[in-house]
Write a structure and sequence with these properties.
Elements: H1 4-13, E1 42-46, H2 55-65, E2 69-73, H3 78-84, E3 87-91, H4 108-124, E4 129-132, H5 142-163, E5 166-170, H6 186-196, E6 201-206, H7 207-213, H8 217-224, E7 228-233, H9 250-259, E8 265-268, H10 277-288
Parallel strand pairs: 1-2, 1-8, 2-3, 4-5, 5-6, 6-7, 7-8
Helix pairs in contact: 4-5, 5-6, 8-9
Amino acid sequence: MTTRRNVIKNIVLGSSALVAVPAITLSTCGAKKANTLKRNINHSVARWTYSFLSLEELCNVVKKIGFSAIDLVGPKEWNVLKKHGVDSSMCNGAEISLTEGWNGKQYHATLVKNYTDHINMVADAGYKNLICFSGNKKGMDDETGLKNSAEGLKKILSLAEKRGVIIQLELLNSKINHPDYMADNSAWGIELCKRIGSENFKLLYDIYHMQISEGDIIRTITDNHKYFGHYHTAGVPGRHEIDNSQELFYPAIMRGIAKTGFKGYVAQEFAPSKENKIAALEEAIRICDV
């Protein structure tokens, strides 16, 4: 089974990831005209979840549905996004891996170089967001992880502030998908934000992951939205479509996000399981378009 970890690993190694699914043509997308979206939520979709399409095809799909942003595309493919007028809503490529992150001081030299290079590339391309990860605990306590992460990240924040790039650390669950990941709860991430003290460092609040880790999604977003710079979606359980087959009610969650005045992106990051995977994306956008 293709997972985000495997796809990111392949991206870091410079290879492409393919998903063994039937080919889907753009004619299967029954999208309505773009102007039917309400625009209270800025929509996006994670590249890796639709990697059975070429990036050219995915750009055409999202524009036909009515939005124009794709998450987790690296610098080598930004030219494709620009060709289609599609935003790189969450850039990647500077990370080492999901397990080797800012909590490990032994990775700081590599990460500082990688992120220095990528902050400049992101800014030069006219983009805004760049993802990062805490890394796994590997026996480390949370306080040491906070100290190490803050120390390392502060080395790149002055450049991020100067270039207008927001570094976004993703919260992931350690119960099901990412065992031993350190930033597996909102409290840890929020404390890191407070210690860094920069508007150019935010949390990527993954709703799927945080439902598994701690629940209480809408209250957490309402109370702590100033620390959250980006959102990901997926159904719980299973990480599939966000329809009524799962426990999260996304219209209420989206209304909660909209009420905070959030102007960033909400990216669909579910692994499509239905036969018509493009129609599943369109349905997800409609569900979240409150």
